[in-house]
Amino acid sequence: MKSSEASNSLRKNLQNNIYKLILISIGISVVIFSYQKDGFFFGI
Questions:
Q1: How many CA atoms lie within 13 A of 41 on its CB side?
Q2: Global pTM exceeds 0.90
Q3: Tens-place pLDDT, residues 8-27
Q4: Where would you find the membrane-spanning parts of this chain (predicted)?
Q5: What spatial distance separates the first Cα and last Cα of the chain, rounded to whole Å?
């Protein structure tokens, strides 16, 4: 039981880290987009 609880907390931490990473990358993309008026750095 305790091992499954530990894996659940580890999975929750991983999901929180991935969520923060996605939010940070979206923020960085918005900043770069506001600096480059001609479009995204991807060339879209």
A1: 10
A2: no
A3: 899 999 999 999 999 999 99
A4: 18-35
A5: 49
